[in-house]
Amino acid sequence: MLALAGRWHDVGKSHPAFQGALRSKGELLRPDRQDLAKGPEVCWLRPVGTYRFSDGSDSRPAFRHELASALALFAVLETFQPQHPALLGTWGEALQLLGHPIVAFASTASPPPSIQQILDCSADEFNLLAYLVASHHGKVRAGLHAAPKDQDYRDRDHRGLPIRGVREGDRLPGICLDSTAAPLPKLSLTLEPAALGLSTRTGASWRERCDQLLAQFGPGGLAFLESLLRAADVRASRLRTNDPALQNEVSA
Q: With a threshold of 0.90, does the pTM exceed it?
């Protein structure tokens, strides 16, 4: 589960708020792609320009890519297997009996291996995976709360305020986690897990999932797993390994 969390932990960096924060500067030209997680220090925008969309259409100063990454996991289940035990599988029938309409259509596309690994998770494994992805910077843990800058956001299109810079209906582009496999599909993010109670889209709330993890692992055990992923992320970020796909593009 730690290895799978490591693979998915930065998917949220494909969000347009994050991608817009990395700009060309001088002779340092930003490649035309949507999956850049790193860049030269001088190319990062600083406040107040941080996390501004590249086309200038929006700005999310409180954006946390790790929350977008975790919500992408929910989007995978909602897209390919809405009746998954970690989503509506346990609650779908009960919600329907209570009079709540369930609108869930699974994609007929064959999922790439990186998607299938998520679909193969049990409900408990999925909850741990989502928590580790969300918590790897220590900013998002058992509660999904709006930051002060989220509350200052001007909701012009009536999609609601952001939570940590992520809004209902935000979309992640289809990027490649594995250069030898098909890219991920575009994923639509929802803030449904942040609400208390059962969701007709994502089932149990984030709070309930975290309570279950705390009961299963204890605070110390969960913190230990979280620290392992964080330590691995720091070590990997210090590496100077060239990305073959990016190197080929730059050379061209």
A: yes
